[in-house]
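4.2 Preliminary Data

To establish feasibility before requesting continued support, the project team ran the inverse folding procedure on a target of 258 residues. The structure was first converted into the token representation described in Section 3, and no sequence information of any kind was made available to the design step. The complete token record follows.
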């Protein structure tokens, strides 16, 4: 079983590879949170993975909340994490382990894979040419990780100092994920896709216009896959990354976009 959360596709693509190569169910954390589904019966000897991006050296707020509610029946003998990151990893692996340890779950391994950066609000995301190279390298890294999971290897070489750095940087994330600066420009056609994509339903359509109805969001950049979404003046003319898995033709989007 592979649980995943994704904003612009990196973690979704990685989770799909894990599920394809290792078997089991592919479970969208966003769906779980919106439906209130937290209890899962785990088949005997099946590895269980949680895949998500790294935000400010920690985990997305929605993933933290999911972990607080997660109930695994027949506790897995091999529980692992796979963290995708575009900037600095800091102590995200340590954070992941500590979150589940606090719930009484023993984590066997926490892996990490560097992938293209997407945080357009703060910096220029990885362009298409560089992203192609990075994704090839990420694929090689995933091949190695999948081999380690099949062998049930333990990967827990943690550094307490990195955990402290993550805690310091994560405070910025908690303070920054306010929705007030978001708005749409004149190119918005009122399609409502951004509202459908938002994992915490922070966007609602009002009189045909996307409106941010919650004070904070996950800051996952999912809505920025539309060029009509702006954030103060930070996104004007700036490239917006999304994984190629989200660049399929419209007829395939419903199956690909979770």
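Position-by-position output of the design step:
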């Amino acid at each position: 079983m592979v649980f995943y959360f994704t904003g612009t596709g990196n973690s979704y693509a990685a989770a799909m590879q894990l599920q394809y190569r290792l078997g089991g169910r592919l479970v969208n954390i966003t769906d779980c949170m919106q439906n209130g589904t937290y209890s899962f019966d785990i088949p005997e000897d099946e590895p269980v993975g949680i895949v998500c991006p790294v935000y400010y050296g920690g985990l997305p707020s929605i993933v933290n909340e999911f972990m607080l509610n997660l109930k695994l029946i027949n506790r897995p003998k091999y529980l692992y994490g796979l963290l995708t990151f575009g900037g600095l990893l800091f102590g995200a692996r340590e954070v992941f382990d500590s979150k589940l340890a606090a719930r009484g779950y023993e984590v066997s391994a926490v892996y990490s894979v560097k992938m293209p950066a997407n945080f357009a609000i703060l910096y220029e995301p990885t362009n298409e040419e560089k992203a192609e190279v990075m994704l090839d390298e990420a694929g090689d890294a995933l091949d190695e990780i999948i081999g380690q999971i099949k062998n049930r290897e333990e990967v827990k070489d943690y550094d307490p100092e990195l955990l402290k750095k993550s805690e310091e940087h994560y405070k910025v994330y908690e303070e920054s994920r306010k929705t007030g600066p978001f708005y749409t420009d004149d190119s918005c056609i009122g399609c409502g896709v951004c509202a459908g994509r938002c994992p915490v339903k922070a966007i609602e359509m009002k009189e045909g216009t996307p409106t941010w109805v919650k004070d904070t969001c996950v800051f996952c950049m999912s809505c920025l896959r539309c060029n009509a979404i702006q954030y103060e003046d930070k996104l004007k003319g700036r490239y917006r990354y999304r994984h190629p898995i989200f660049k399929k033709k419209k007829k395939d989007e419903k199956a690909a976009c979770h």
